[in-house]
Automatic annotation (TrEMBL):
A single GO BP: methylation
Gene that encodes it: bioC
Catalysed reaction, written as an equation: malonyl-[ACP] + S-adenosyl-L-methionine = malonyl-[ACP] methyl ester + S-adenosyl-L-homocysteine
Cross-referenced InterPro entries: BioC (IPR011814), Malonyl-ACP_OMT (IPR050602), Methyltransf_11 (IPR013216), SAM-dependent_MTases_sf (IPR029063)
EC number(s) reported in the record: 2.1.1.197
Organism this protein belongs to: Pseudomonas azadiae
HAMAP family: BioC (MF_00835)
Domain (Methyltransferase type): residue spans on this chain: 58-151
Pfam family, one: Methyltransf_11
Molecular-function annotations in GO: malonyl-CoA methyltransferase activity
Membrane-crossing residue ranges in chain numbering: none
Catalytic class of the enzyme: transferase
Family: Belongs to the methyltransferase superfamily.
Protein name from the UniProt record: Malonyl-[acyl-carrier protein] O-methyltransferase
């Protein structure tokens, strides 16, 4: 049987140390360019059960702590924990408050006690986890019965315009890989958590030119981190070929960049 928790293969996902370092470097610039991240997180919040009132919650992959602060405001009598693999993000988030504890940790090995949470919230973080089955297993472990896991992630099809344009330009790997929506479906179904909702939605952003898109990805820390990516500087000829290829996608609003977002709400059975 195929181990979907390790998808997408071939090529696997980036080394976590590189992910942590990249997002740490991006901490100061992240909030200035995080329009998609804000929109997705608020869409995920809107999917939470209306009667949910957690005493203790975790913002897993908290980044700059924006949604830790939103959760603290929404659940005013609760205790919050903000966790991220990137120390630079935690250093940025900590002075801004929102959570009682800011801790460095890995979603695949949470440094939390069993059955210690009523809500685990994670927006646009778990796409960097190679073993998503372990993420779900950890969520099952730390949630109390009746507790909720709400996550948003990215799946195959994300940044396909950029991927296709690079393929036309030089055939090398320049765009991060993501697992399939079907892998998310199968892993969630096998997690021991009850699937309340699981859907995929496309978000399309538009840019005046390719440079605006690539600069934003770098400012987010989400530029190419794949194993097998080309080393060194990208030559002018290849950039010109990329620009020419991407122009084939131009729309009236500008150059499109499509993100395929997975929204999921799961509940630990009583």
């Amino acid at each position: 049987m195929t181990d979907l928790s390790q998808a997408p293969l071939p090529g696997a996902l980036p080394d976590k140390r590189q992910v942590a370092a990249s997002f740490s470097r991006a901490a100061a610039s992240y909030d200035n360019v995080a329009q998609l991240q804000r929109a997705v997180g608020h869409q995920l919040l809107a999917r939470l059960p209306a009667d949910l009132a957690p005493q203790r919650w975790l913002d897993m992959g908290c980044g700059t702590g924006y949604f830790s602060r939103v959760l603290a405001e929404r659940f005013s009598n609760s205790q919050g924990i903000a966790l991220d693999i990137a120390e630079g993000m935690l250093n940025h988030a900590r002075p801004l408050g929102g959570a009682e504890h800011f801790i460095a940790g890995d979603a695949e090995r949470l440094p939390l006690k069993a059955e210690s949470l009523q809500l685990l919230f994670s927006s646009l973080a778990v796409q960097w986890c190679a073993n998503f089955g372990a993420v779900l297993s950890e969520a099952h472990r730390v949630l109390q019965p009746g507790g909720v896991l709400a996550f948003a992630s990215l799946c195959v099809g994300t940044l396909e315009e950029l991927r296709e344009s690079w393929r036309a330009a030089d055939g090398l790997v320049h765009v991060n890989r993501f697992r399939t929506f079907q892998a998310y479906q199968q892993l969630c179904a096998a997690s021991g958590l009850r699937v309340v909702s699981l859907e995929r939605r496309a978000h399309v952003l538009h840019y005046p030119d390719v440079r605006s898109l690539t600069h934003e990805l770098k400012a987010l820390g989400a530029h190419n981190l794949n194993p097998g990516r080309p080393g060194g500087l990208t030559g002018r000829a290849r950039i010109a070929a990329l620009v020419q290829a991407y122009e084939q996608f131009r729309q009236a609003q500008g150059l499109p960049a499509t993100y395929h977002v997975v929204y999921a709400v799961l509940e630990k059975p009583l």
